[in-house]
């Protein structure tokens, strides 16, 4: 392709512009100025080649077969004109906030328990709740159990990241736990219901990883709720109806993980793969705090 170029004829009192055709790689041409303007009389052809000025110095590199490694290493540095850095090419990944949610009865607690057993530097944030303690639960491990008055005091003091009224009882996430453990490099795992996940999405945006946990089918999900035997028939009906509706929120999460009956180990490995993939991203998620 031939591109137009412009040649300039400069005179003391006039300037003329003419259009010519030339090699597309030559955008400028040498021009001659009037003797009265010697200070700007400098042809472009005398401009030094910029690439040549940045060429590394010529250094004799010894034979790869005969030279020892330190000698060859130093010769390569000298030839390139700079020292090789021993700093990590990839910075240490930032701690993640992993929000795990899903309908009732899909095994969120079992998944988190197994994840903590197989993965280091994971901190499960213990949720505060005003509901009564169930058989087998431990205060401070499964939940921080408290009265509604105590819970509302936390709300008043702005000590909760989010909270909600769920089935007549309050649940909320203490802020300080998250700050303390993230400062130590721990990944944070939050277990919340669907309502809590929606609230956290508004608060945290893309700074957290949102994982939706489901059973392999709607029928299996209902059977798990029946098998828990922790509800009256009235509350069981409410939980089943709510769970069916909550399945519609799957599209608002980053990942979906199926917790199939008898395949908890595979479910945990899938979640680990999600965490590893997030940490290997070139663009890390922004820090939450």
TrEMBL record:
UniProt keyword Lyase, yes or no: no
MF terms (GO), sorted A to Z: ATP binding; GMP kinase activity
Recorded GO CC terms: cytosol
Keywords: ATP-binding, Kinase, Nucleotide-binding, Transferase
TM annotation in the entry: none
Group of enzyme by EC: transferase
InterPro entries linked to this entry: GK/Ca_channel_bsu, Guanylate_kin-like_dom, Guanylate_kinase, Guanylate_kinase_CS, P-loop_NTPase
EC number: 2.7.4.8
Ranges for domain Guanylate kinase-like: 95-276
PROSITE patterns (UniProt xref): GUANYLATE_KINASE_1, GUANYLATE_KINASE_2
Gene3D superfamilies linked to this entry: Guanylate Kinase phosphate binding domain (3.30.63.10), P-loop containing nucleotide triphosphate hydrolases (3.40.50.300)
Protein family membership: Belongs to the guanylate kinase family.
Name of this chain's protein: guanylate kinase
Source organism: Deinandra increscens subsp. villosa
Lineage: Eukaryota, Viridiplantae, Streptophyta, Embryophyta, Tracheophyta
């Amino acid at each position: 392709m031939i591109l137009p170029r412009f040649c300039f004829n400069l005179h003391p009192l006039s300037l003329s512009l003419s259009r010519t055709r030339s090699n597309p790689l030559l955008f400028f041409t040498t021009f001659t100025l009037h003797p009265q303007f010697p200070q700007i009389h400098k042809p472009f052809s005398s401009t030094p080649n910029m690439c040549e000025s940045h060429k590394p110095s010529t250094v004799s590199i010894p034979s790869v077969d005969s030279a020892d490694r330190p000698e060859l290493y130093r010769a390569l540095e000298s030839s390139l004109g700079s020292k090789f850095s021993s700093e990590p090419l990839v910075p240490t990944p930032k701690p993640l906030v992993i929000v795990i949610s899903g309908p009732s009865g899909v095994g969120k607690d079992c998944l988190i328990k197994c994840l903590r057993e197989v993965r280091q530097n994971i901190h499960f944030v213990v949720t505060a709740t005003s509901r009564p303690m169930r058989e087998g639960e431990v205060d401070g491990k499964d939940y921080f159990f408290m009265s509604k008055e105590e819970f509302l005091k936390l709300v008043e003091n702005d000590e909760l990241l989010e909270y909600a009224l769920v089935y007549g009882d309050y649940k909320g996430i203490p802020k300080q736990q998250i700050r303390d453990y993230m400062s130590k490099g721990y990944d944070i795992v939050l277990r919340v219901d669907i309502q809590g996940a929606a609230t956290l999405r508004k608060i945290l945006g893309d700074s957290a990883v949102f994982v939706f946990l489901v059973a392999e089918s709607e029928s299996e999900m209902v059977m798990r709720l029946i098998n828990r035997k922790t509800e009256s028939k009235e509350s069981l009906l409410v939980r089943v109806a709510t769970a069916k509706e909550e399945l519609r929120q799957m599209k608002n999460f980053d990942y979906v993980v199926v917790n199939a009956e008898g395949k908890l180990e595979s479910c945990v490995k899938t979640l680990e793969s999600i965490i590893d993939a997030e940490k290997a991203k070139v663009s890390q998620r922004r820090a939450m705090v």
